[in-house]
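Internal ticket #5521
Category: modeling
Description: The requester needs a full-assembly model to guide mutagenesis choices. All entity lines are attached below as received. Residue total reported by intake: 604.
Assigned to: D.W.
Attached entities:
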Amino acid sequence: MAGSPRARRMLGKSLRYLLLTVLAIVVIFPLYMTVVNSLLRPSQIAARPPTFFPTNPQWSSYSSAWNAGHMSRYLLNSAIQTLIITVGQLVTAILAAYAFAFLEFPLKRTLFLVFLSTLMVPFEVTIVTNLATINDLGWYNSYQGLAVPFLATGFGAFLLRQAFLQVPRDLQDAASLDGYGHWKFMTRVAVPLARPAVAALGVFAFLGAWNQYLWPLLVTKDEKYRTVQIGLKQLRATSIDQVNVTFAGVIIAALPLVILLLLFQKQLVRGLTAGAVKG
Amino acid sequence: MTYSGDSGTLGALADLGEADQVEGEIPRRRGRRFGRRRMREMGFAYLLLIPSLFIFGVFVFYPFFRNFYLGFYKTPPFPGLPTRYVGFDQYRDVLSSQDFIDSLKTTVGFALLTVPAGIALGLGLAVLAHQQLKGIGIYRTIFSSTIATSVAVASVIFGTLFNPVVGLLPWLGINPQPPILENPDLALIGVAIITIWQTLGLTFILMSSGLQSIPEEMDEAARVDGAGPWRRFWRVTLPLLSPTIFFAVVVGSIFAFQTFGQIDILTQGGPLKRTNVLTYFVYTTLRQDNNDGKAAVLAVALFSITFVLTLIQMRVLERRVHYGR
């Protein structure tokens, strides 16, 4: 019977699945079409009605993007910049957070405020002078120019300090009885115990660095140091009659993040929601 | 998630105070030796802070304060000529110029186009995906998938989908003349759609975590009281989610004022400067006009707006600390 509670529940469930599926298709559609178009010939992409399934995939667009489109070089540059920034931020944030969590020193409160105040200055506000500084240092179009301004993080120091404060005091006392100095305590006890926060900061820093756009555009001039985000713009501009190559470039540019997110989904959610949601 | 900012920024300062007190309670040991140890601890602490402080000093504070100074000097029309001190005149001229006012209006308009719609969509998807259904994990993954895209990736994808020749939008019957991204009335909306899609994954994740932190019993109690799903959403879920939503509104607005990549790739501020958002205006003033003085004034304006937004955010975080748990 259509009116029975069981039938109504079934209907409600089907409707929910239908709604979810329609929305999922809408959200994923642009990405799906990017994959499809990267495997078509340009003439097929422009044909109407459009092709929604590549029956005869053309993989050559990927090698074109990789070689002629310089995507291999752009990826390498992005990887180097991102690696330097991520490792650098982890190191400086661990050191600073350790001082704020475990040590006593004059001006502690003031210096912590100084760290927090950096969160109030968006990077966009500093570009006028930073560009001049990088030029003066002779770092225009170099990895140093791409990475050095981002080697410290107020957010990261704050996040790790909160994690370090959770380290039980007894452990500190026990460690000091065992003759652990600060250095040993930091590397053997504090950092391992704060691993979830360290991982969250790592993923957060990686994502931020990889997605940078304005700064790499300002301080690089050719493919030798240009990062993948700027490379995409270049690829789009140079091959307007090779849309398939542009689409292949998009996939190549997005793939590292897709892999990273599949591996570190939990850490990322933690990093992104820190400060927003109390748990 | 013990460290997840349940105390917020100001709460952290309160913690600092507590830490000081705890430290004070430890019985002091023999004067001299203790003093030397304290000195050693102090030196070590500063050593740990120096790397961060050095980077902040050179790349955050120095350029930040130098903006105010640069704003007092007019950049010469040709490089090599001396700059000229004009005091606050440059601030007045730039901030009252039509270009700046238009740019500000465009940026605010962009925020109004992207933030409310983006949050509504992210929240809607999060609520839909927040139920016990077989295979819901797949839907959650799809809804958060756009987090894997960067601004550049999203811009290039949509730039092509919107393209009148190879794009799909014209085929669907949406074919305005001139095309969306070259149309003075539509370009900003087009860029906004791209931005909403690109940030949807992030908003979805944020809203989902917010929903998960709402205790099950609250919803259950309302259900027992006979409240339907619609009523439960408005009376229970939404109020409890309001801190998360507020956070998303403030951060979304700050993001809107930093919008750059979409504009650089798709519209270059045009057509007719209709997409000339503030950060893009700073960039062209600096890079194309080589006008450091004017760019510095614009940067100060950009900072002031972000600063107000951040203050509002801290205010709310502070309130949450006091009434939290």
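Resolution: model delivered.
Comment from assignee: Chain A touches chain B through 107 residues (CB under 8 Å).
Ticket closed.
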